[in-house]
Design goal:
Elements: E1 3-8, H1 31-39, E2 45-49, E3 64-65, H2 75-88, E4 93-98, H3 108-115, E5 122-127, E6 130-139, H4 143-151, H5 158-162, E7 167-171, H6 186-200
Helix pairs in contact: 2-4
């Protein structure tokens, strides 16, 4: 199975004062650089889903794809855009990752992919008691149904869509930190600094 990685970079960063989280400085790195570095070896090809000026991601060597539905309807719009792009590239599924979660597991995609038992199954990551819907593998065959969910049904909730199909929740262990720790606030950014500095020692 050929899998495309899609970095979802469409959030509005409200808790960061409107500053784009993916481009802030974290110990000399941008979160999106860390996410791209971690996702690239896990997938066959990769793209960033983001709207607006694609040039702000020019330092990442991969295509930038915009939402294919209007209205800033949330992460599922990025999933849909990723499905359409990946299907044209000959992929059977996409693996999505959030741009503000730079420490996700290095075996994320392989473990999610191995859990799927049918070509239209969906697999999502989980840590502790929390599921992480944007860290998932989605079959591109569901693109038309997802577009109908967003446009005709005017719905937005990731799990509401995913639960229409066989959904596998894959548990990832929490060690010193939750591997799905994400940067939402200035305090989170400081914690990410500390994690990176400790890793570089």
């Amino acid at each position: 199975m050929k899998i495309a990685g899609i970095i979802l970079a469409g959030g509005q960063s409200r808790r960061m004062g409107g500053n784009e989280k993916s481009l802030m400085d974290i110990s000399g790195f941008k979160p999106i650089e860390l996410v791209a570095h971690r996702l690239t070896p896990q997938v066959d090809i990769m793209a960033i889903n983001a709207n607006g000026d694609a040039g702000r991601f020019s330092h990442i060597e991969c295509p930038v794809i915009e939402d294919t539905v209007d209205g800033n309807v949330g992460p599922l719009a990025g999933v849909l855009a990723g499905m359409r792009w990946a299907s044209e590239a000959g992929c059977q599924a996409i693996a999505t990752a959030a741009t503000d979660t730079p420490f996700f597991p290095k075996d994320l995609v392989s473990r999610l992919a191995s859990a799927r038992q049918d070509k239209i199954d969906i697999a999502m990551a989980k840590s502790g008691e929390r599921i992480h819907p944007v860290f998932a593998i989605w079959p591109v065959a569901l693109a038309d149904e997802l577009e109908s969910f967003l446009v005709e049904e005017d719905k937005r909730k990731i799990l509401e869509f995913a639960n229409r199909y066989t959904l596998h929740e894959i548990e990832f262990a929490i060690d010193d930190i939750d591997p799905f720790f994400n940067i939402n606030t200035p305090e989170d950014a400081q914690m990410a600094h500390s994690i990176l500095e400790a890793a570089q020692k």
